[in-house]
Amino acid sequence: MALKNLYGVEQIYGIPYGYKGFYEPDLEIRLLTEEFVSDIHHEGGSVLGSSRGGHNTKMICDAIVDFEFNQVYIIGGDGTHRGAIKIYEELKSRKLKASIIGIPKTIDNDIALIDRSFGFDTAVEEAQRAIDSAKTEAISAFNGIGLVKLMGRHSGYIAMFSTLASRDVDVCLIPEVKFVLEGPNGLFAYLEKLLHQKGHAVIVVAEGAGEELLDQSQMTRDASGNVKSQDVGLWLKDQILNHFKTTKEDMTLKYIDPTYMIRTVAANASDNLYCGVLGQNAVHGAFAGLSGFTVGLINTYYVYIPMGEISVGRMKVDVHSRMWHRVISTTRQPQLY
Would you tell me how many other CB atoms lie within 10 Å of the CB of residue 223? Predict the structure, then answer.
């Protein structure tokens, strides 16, 4: 809307299903009219679709030339931005006047430098609902355990913030903190203690937690080259059930994986506002003649960031920070190692 209403742009197109939408013959780019986009902020998911992989720098740049695009807005995480840098460099080498602008988007909130990426607040809000359900199931059963797996392959931000928001979690497991299952300091011993003291327990585990404990032979890679590990939620569920079966202690475990419910829910008010401001600032930067930048929030200020700076790595939870110490204070979990 900013392109049309503020700068009078009449032809705005959407590329379907990620980078491959630029050149796949079976996919058609879509004219984004005011009628089409006016209500999309009330919907979940993506009206254009998404995909992994499909990046071919030459074919994408050829398509940009063929379609006569002079501004390209690319939305995604660090991997998407690395692809955007290649497009920017290729167009620059061809001396073509087309701006490449990035908008950071990942609900994992692990993009370097920025305060947060849009979608994160909504993810935490929806994840808290899953934790609420796990708590209800746990306290409704004799020696009940509620286990919730949340997103966070490399960083435990969703698990950490959801734990703090709910204040019903007894154990929060994230990729940045190692844990073991067996032994006097292990997870099993602590769960036994919780069941004896409270009669129930709630566990939140980020999808990348405990990776060193999983079967490495089952690891694969997705279309973008990212490592896909064994499902830690299902693995942990089986390990806990097997342990209590061995000890012959009666218990009930309910497992909740809200991943796709979280991914597809419509953005909340905070993310709607944040996304709108990011989009408007991206447009202002492009019409100022800038290219190869990402718009983001740093120390509460909206700024333009060189794409190369935002793609150098992922943010991880600082386990020495006050925020993680708040988690320990809230859950009262010991070091499980």
Answer: 12
The catalytic residue positions are: 108
List the alpha helices (DSSP H) in the chain: 2-7, 34-37, 57-66, 78-93, 120-139, 157-166, 187-197, 232-247, 259-264, 269-287, 307-310, 322-331
CA gap 82, 86 in Å, rounded:
7
Measured CA angle at 207 (ends 81, 150), to 5 deg: 95
Which residues lie below 8 Å from residue 203, measured CB to CB, with a gap of 6+? 145, 146, 147, 148, 169, 170, 171, 172, 173, 191, 236
Tens-digit pLDDT string for the chain (337 aa): 899 999 999 999 999 999 999 999 999 999 999 999 999 988 988 899 988 888 999 999 999 999 999 999 999 988 899 999 999 999 999 999 999 999 999 889 999 899 999 899 999 999 999 999 999 999 999 999 999 999 999 999 999 999 999 999 999 999 999 999 999 999 999 999 999 999 999 999 999 999 999 977 666 666 556 666 689 999 999 999 999 999 999 999 999 999 999 999 999 999 999 999 999 999 999 999 999 999 999 999 999 999 989 888 889 999 999 999 999 999 999 999 8
DSSP string, 67-126: TT-SEEEEEESHHHHHHHHHHHHHHHHTT---EEEEEE--TT--BSSSS--TTHHHHHHH
* CA contacts within 13 A on the Cβ side of 298: 13
Q: Mutual orientation of helices 322-331 and 157-166 as an angle, nearest 10°? A: 50
